[in-house]
Each structure stands twice: as C-alpha cells, then as structure tokens.
Queue: 2 jobs
Job 1
Amino acid sequence: MVSIFLILFVAATAYLFSDFIEYKVVAFLLLVTVSLIAMFFDIVPVLLAACLSAIVWNYFFIPPRFTFAIQSTENVILFSMYFVIAMVNAVLTYKIREIEKKANKKTEKENTLKLYDTLLNSLSHELRTPISTIIGATDTLQEEKHKLSEENATELISEISKASLRLNRQVENLLNMSRLEAGVLKPKNDWCDISELVYDVIHQLKDTLQHKPVEVNIKDNIPLFKLDQGLLEQVLHNLLYNAALYITKYAVITVRVTVNKEHHLVIIIEDTGDGFPEDEIEYVFDKFYRLKNSKTGGTGLGLSIVKGFVEAMNGSIRLENGDEYGAIFTITIPAEIAHVNDIKNE
Amino acid sequence: MNNSVEILIIDDEPQIRKLLNITLQSNDYKLKEASTAQDGLVMAASHPPDLILLDLGLPDESGHEVLKKLREWYSKPVIILSVQSREEDIVKALDNGANDYLVKPFRTGELLARIRSLLRSASSDAENPVVTVGEIEIDLSLRTVKKNKEQVKLTVTEYNLLALLVKNEGKVLTHQFLLRSIWGPSYIDQSQYLRVFVAQLRKKIEDDLNKPLHIITESGIGYRFV
C-alpha cells in the first residue's frame, strides 16, 4: 500500500509540475522512487510499484498524454527501457538487501557462538578444575597410599575439601542465576544483625582472604534491619570473594555499614587495589561479563548475582573507582529498621 | 630412581599444582612450579627440566604460545594438562610440539604412566637402534621387525609408519603429521590411507585386533605407540 501510495504521490507531484519538467525527467524521478521502495519493502510491493510507475508514466506523461498509446518509436523504446530498468533495479536492490540481511544474520550468529564458546570455556574451567583436584587427589590417596607421607595425605584431603567447596560455590552461583532468571526469587524478610552477618561472611572466607586484611567499620548502635539475610549474605560473600581474588596482595578491604537520610541500609565495600577499568565499569554487572584483562577462571556470574539479589530486595548497587585507587561498591537497600535501644531488655 | 628427574609444572591453579606436587613427589620426581607463562619460560630456560607439564589457560599468555616458544629450543617431553577438551585444541597443541595431552580432570595413574612412557622414550633415543616393546623388537638400523623373535614381513609403507610411531614412543602423533610424514603434504586429508595401513600393521603385530596394546587410537586426533 505504502509503495503504491509513494509512486502515486511522486507521480502527482510531477504531474503538478508537468508544464515545467520534461516527461523524460519524470521517468528518472519514478525510477529513484522505485529504488527507494526496494530498499525498504518486500519483493511483491516493489514489483507492483515498478509496474505501476511504468503505467503511470505512460498514461500521464508520455505524449500523447492520458492514453496508453505511444506514437513515436523513440518513446516506445524509452518506455520499454524504462520498464526493464525499473524491474531490474527493483529486483537488484531487493537482492542486495537480502544478501546484507543474510550477512548480518551470519555475524549475529557468529557473535552468539563466540559468546557461547567463551562462556563454555570459563564454565568448564571453573567446574573442571575442582573436579580434577578431587579425582586426582582421591586417585593418589587410593593408589599411591604406601608412598604418601601422613602430612601429604592430610594435605590432599584438605585440597579435596577446598575443591568441593569451590565446586559447591559454582553450582550455587549457577542455581542462583537460574532462580533469578526464572523470576521466582522472593525475599524472605526477617530481622537481621548486619554486624554479625558481615563478620560471619569474613570468617567463611578466611582461607581465600589470607593476607588481605578486612577492616570493618560498623557503629555499635547500628539498628536491626528487616531483610532477607540469605540473599544479603550471598551478596557480601560474592563481593568479598571477588575482592580477595582480584585485588593485589596486601591491599586492604574495608566494609562500612551506615544508615542514610532516608533510613535505608547502606553497605560500602571498598579496597585499595587497582580498581576497575573505567570503560568497563558499566558492564561488570552483566551476566557472564568478564574483564578484558582478567585472569583465567571466573564465570562472570558473581557480580550479576550480586546485582540481581540486591534488586530483588528493592535495593540498588553502584560501582565506582576511588579518587586515588581501588574500587567502591555501594549497596543501598530500603528496609524496615528496629533500633536496638528501643527493644527493652527485660 | 626418579630422584634426578626434574619436572616443571606451569599451571595457574594452586590446587592443581598442589595435587601434582604431592603425587609426583611421592613418586620421587623433583618438582618445580610456575604459575604464569612468564615464570614458566624463565624457569625452563634457567634450568631445563626433564619434562614439562603445561596448562593451556595461563593468566598472562596462552599455553599454545608458551609451547611454541619452548619448542624453539626445548626438545624434551611436554605434556599438556588442560580443561579444554575440543579436538581442535588437542590437535593444535600436538602440532605445536606437545608430546601428549591430558584433559582435566585426569586420573593420576594415567598421568604417571604417560610421564614414565615419555621419559623412557626420551632416554632411549640415545644411539640405540633396537627398540624392544614387550614381545616386539624393532631394529631401526636394519629396518627389521620381530615379534616373539620371529621376523614380521612389512611393506615399505607399513615399516615407515611403524618406525615413525616407534621413534615417538608414547607421543600422540596426529593424523595430519603421520600422513604428511609418510605420504607427503598433499595427502594430509586422506585419513583413509592411515586407517587401512594401521589396520594392516595391527594385524601383523597385535595379538588381539579388538584390544590393540601397541598402536593406540586417540579418537579424532591420531595414534600413539606404547
């Protein structure tokens, strides 16, 4: 419809000026219109437009006007040529567009495949490494028992335990991600002692944190918050785990918990590491995103789960680099507050 | 006995290094560890080990690149340990000069066997033209093959194929490498030649064709002589 309308519109406009422009010029105008139509529409309307333009040109413009008859031989040739050129033009433009579409689809498919490949690689690394440790260590414990010193045997068992925990964390992350994707995540709110929670997570991560000191800055009079402790624990766990893994040795991690003016819970986790590349900050919470210069390992799930969980609690998370060094994660969660002093100790 | 044998592990995963360290030390190998490509190359160059266990996913450089750099001067065995299990990765590593490729997770028994096999073939390279593997004896100077002391008649191509596999005992030789070496560069896609000749060789030297003990198929990759 649109294509027919366009042809008629151009023809009508040309008709208005037909005293000033020669009918041969009108042919060019119509040809351009057909080409433009071919760039945007399907093949049937394009061919229709090409035919219609030929008819319109013949009837309204080629002398004698307002008849389909063409008298001079020159005009017969012109008309035939117009018809052929319009058709060829229409078909060719349409074909080029199709080829372009195909090429775009191909690149899109290639990109998806590439993403899938990277994802599969990092996932297989994250899952297979601890599995290797478990299988290898049990093999050695079983088959090389007589050659192992007691100390080495104990160490292998501790490696098995570490690897199992790592595997568990990855599986947990994948399950959490599917819970987020499925949209079935509903926070179960209950009163939570933030201070206890922070120290608990730090304790859980003591092996990973090793030399990296964590300073905790929470005032004694911090109120209780009504929120989903499980979700917040996972959020803190992922952020501290990331910090422990990626910041330079001996950098300091600080956890600050405060209440802002709107009485929302604010948790700030900052470090004295290298911070994030400025141009990548906006992507770090994307699912499966991994920094361009990141070390091997990691699935790119940790931070996206953090964001998903914080948002599930109606909160928000922001990442920025410090003025001098390090990264600053700021989490804000609106939550009901209970001041400890208000609770009577009876 | 292995005391003097030194193995260098280049792997960024502390857990894997620890596991290999304990397992190999318990088998009397001397161990050195590097967690980055850079460290690994420096350590290999400053005191060349007898064998290198190399991971492909290193933080600073791909293991494939490390392997290429190593192979410019290092001729002793390199075994790749990697989570990457695609045939392309395995073939690429072997073509770049890896002697063997184990996909993580691997069994430690298997790793120890491959290490032993490669170390044996590396040390037997020296001068001795007669290779004895079980009941099979191959004399590389006289170009003769005996099974249970009896001469086995081989065609020229069969012999060349066997000799190539034997000279690289323990090492996986890719289809392309074998085809190029025996038949020439224009044959690298003609894997049917290889299938036919390997089958013929097995008929002559293996006891049970369904369970070959010497010419082992590495599915989709190549063959190994053990």
Job 2
Amino acid sequence: MAEIDRLTEKLVRGLASRTSRRSLFGLLGGFVAGAATLPLLPVAKGAEHTNPADPTSGKTPPLPSGNPQDPGDQRSCDYWRYCAVDGSLCTCYGGTVNSCPPGAEMSPITWIGTCRNPADERNYIISYNDCCGGVPWGRCNCQNNNGDRPVVRPQSSNEVTWCFGTQSQSYTCTVAIILGVAIDQGKK
Amino acid sequence: MGAPSAPAGVADPQRAWQNWTLNCQGCHRIDGSGDAQTAPSLAGIVAQFLLVPGGREYLARVPGVATSPFSDADLAELLNWMLWRFDAADLPADFKPYTAEEMHALRAAPLRLEANAQRTALLETLKRQRSP
C-alpha cells in the first residue's frame, strides 16, 4: 500500500512540476472539479443593467396607461405590474405592456407571479412573457423579484430566459399581462 | 354520456384555477397544449391515462405534480380540476376524484427522468386497448 502511495506521489509531483495552471490539463481539471461548470439553463438576465451596444438605453419618455385603474409609468421599474420583472421592458422597444415589439415573438412559456395594484389594493396575477428574436435586450432594465425562487426550482425562477417554443432563443424584452385577480392564499 | 359540467372533487374552482395558473400554466401553456421539450400536452389527452392500469398513479407521480409546492388537499383539488378543465370528455363515468390521502401516498415516490418513458408506455397500452 505504501509502495502505491509513494509511486502516486512521485507521479503527481512530476506532473505538477511540468504543467502550468493555465494548461489544458488544468482547465480540464477545473471542469471535472465543477469549478468551471456551465449553466444548463439560459440564466442571462440581471447580469448587467445596461447594454453598451444600445445607445438609447434608458432614454425614453414616461408612458402612462391613460386608465386611472392602472396607474403609473409603464416605462418605469416602479410600475405596479413590474413587481417581478427581471429583464428589459418591451415598452422601451416600441412594444406595449401587453405586446411584443415588431420583429419579436412572444414566448408561450412564461413566468407568472402576482403584484398589488395601488389603485384598488388588489393582487393581480401577471404573466411575464418574454419576447424573443428581436433587437438585443438592454433598455429599461428592471430587476424586481417579488415571488422569485432560486434556480434550484427553475420553474419558479424569474432569472431564466423563457424563450422556449419560439423561433429564436435570443431574449429582447418582457411584457406584463394581467391574467386575473388573485385570491389570498398566504405564501408558498 | 356528456362531459361533466362541473369538476368533481374541487371545493374551490377559483383556487384551483389560481394554483394552476401560478404553477403549471407557464410551462403547460394556457390551453394545456404543452410540447415535447418543456411540459407534455394535457388538452384532450390527460384524462385518458385514467383508463389504463398505472395511469392514475402516474398522473400523481409526475415531477411537476409530486414535487409541486402544494398541500396534499390543494394538490388533489388541482389534479381533479385540471382533468376536468382540459379533458372532461374523456373522464370515465365512474371517475373517483383524487383525495388528499391518495396524493400524500403517491407523491412520496415522484417520477424523475423516467416520467417520459412511462408516459410513452402508458399511451402504447391505451392504443392496444383500443384496437386489439
């Protein structure tokens, strides 16, 4: 047993003295150890808040709904429906709070949460469909996480890019469609 | 015999709809159409699993059901509602709604990677049952 130990030590020391940390061997070792794992889900949103490639980032006038029952600026992260938006707002891309901008396709796979409307103090169920395949995301970024869950429960995480079931998996922006009024059930 | 006009085993349809919307609809889609990559289709097919041996258990053990964040009672209600909402026409006349006790027992052994293979096998059995 001691013989095997001695031989192994000799081998490993020899290897260590001949390969640098930047070598391919080192890189592969990193993968094996899990230190350089690649994400299995497209978790891209929230990593940056501006896109340097898009010079109009954030520079847009306010957009009220015109309906006193739906108050606030639909281009602002504080708008009540955006309580769980993690991404760019479609209202800053020529889309609306309910529809995708031209050239982007709405994903049928969505993250759904609830937000409180200050006009009537009721909770509404909001569907955050991603719009995919248009210009790159970056404008009017919001990172609100009401009801978000860590990516260990991926179906409940709003950080995943939900561009599944669309032609393109490249994310442009997110809408906030009201599906109905929520009844109070306490937290899950 | 026509499809039932109201779901059996559903104390609160509004609550069942909400639980479905917040936790299932996002992937199974608003019309229950689903797809092969994300979550399987329910519309026009999900109640048919009740017609083959092992199908009833399968529905309670699929990962999206068994590992969902609901109490056993809410989960039974949701499953009963979902069967009626997406495939009422295929519900057997003697359908016994799921109960909290039944959900408690079945969800203790969730299916994982084998769920898809089981779905395929059950559908094969259904096909053979229909055209012997």
